[in-house]
User: Fold this.
Amino acid sequence: MIQDIAPHRLKNQYAPGKRCGADDFVVCARDGALLVPKVGPLRFPRYSELATGLSGVAPEADVAAAAWDVSALLSPEAMPYLFSVDDTDFYLVRGTVTAPAGWHYVKLRQLRQDGHGSREAFYAAYTAMHLAIWYENNRFCGKCGCETIHSETERALVCPRCGRIIYPQLIPAIIAGVIDGDRILLTKYAHRKMPFYALIAGFTEIGETLEECVEREVYEEVGLRVKNLRYYKSQPWGNVQDILAGFYCDVDGSADIRLARDELREAVWVPRADVVGQTDDFSLTHEMMMTFRSGNEPK
Assistant:
């Protein structure tokens, strides 16, 4: 899966007061896309590559661009430390950078489709996007409307007016491998142009356990009751800010599919030997499909 980057290691503990160096990577995000090279494998620009143009960065707040200088960008408030991969640090520019020559903004789904880059680079991109969205969505306090500031001690945004503390948010979701004997239920989303099959998935509701979410999502999308739920693995999936929990389960009663066409355009039972995976091995969905194909799913 995308997080399986050993022997490399992503270290996401927040380090207050860290400053970006010339060789550190800089994450620039805009409208759900990341600044990456037009040619070559996926990577972020190093600070030294952008330094000459940083004085032209437009800040998030309504401040004149002329006042937005390099020293301001290097402050933890304007350019917070995100994480490191091995010994290389990643920082976020909290402003809009115009793409310099040779660079452009690309959404994660397109980056994944292009497939040019190391696994650790893709894992960094997904994690960086999750954090970039969190920072962007919490510039102002949702309680009193005051502009937030970064905590001096932890990864959190703080409202200086009412004291509200905002931590990075994870949305719990499930993946369900629904099994009927020696076949598994594969689906295609109604509103996505994905050529490959997936498994049933959905977000957990407030007051609902992960197991109850599996039962509800399966029934809502294909009209099946399930039993014998067993946990498999979890996965961070930063492009939609969720943490996925994978379960296998067995059909309880009839295996006749009643398709919810507002959710799915196709749902089919596929024999174990006929399961075909997705175009890469990044996702928990793909691993669960291949694990079933090989007969190694938890019984």
